[in-house]
Design a protein that fits this description.
3-stranded mixed β-sheet; about 5% strand; 8 helices; 3 strands; about 60% helix; mainly alpha; about 160 residues; single chain; Four Helix Bundle (Hemerythrin (Met), subunit A)
Amino acid sequence: MSGQSDLIERYARGGGLLKYAAQGMTPEHQTTRIGPGQWSPAEVVVHLLDSDLVLADRMKRLIAEENPVLQAFDEQAWLARLDSQSMPVDEAVALFSANRQWMTRILERCTESDFARTGTHSETGSQTLASVLAKTVSHLDHHLKFLYGKRAALGDAVPPRYSED
């Protein structure tokens, strides 16, 4: 395994963290928006799944292709047009977890030179496999904070857990 092993371990824990953060919510709580323009817990979970699948695709391209284009996506359009609000949270969590498990197997086989491979993001420019992996880990933690906050606001709090714990 490479020098990225700590980050890979944090990435691998992501499925369990999301499962924990989303457990036990009632269907009503899953779809409640606690303020105007805010996402519901279900939309947060589905956004995490969508983003994780996109980021996994980027990591695979960085590993397998020479200087791939890493396409941006419009998260607001995906939430609106793909009806994220009505998607089953348990299925989103299961798919997120399975994706993390699969990608962990791939990442554990990468070398230091693999983590230095670069591609070009369509909006932000050059990125490495290492930087995309770090972003993926921090993205989950960023949105878990929102999910825990939404649960607390709904009177359904659970003690927070993050990848750095």
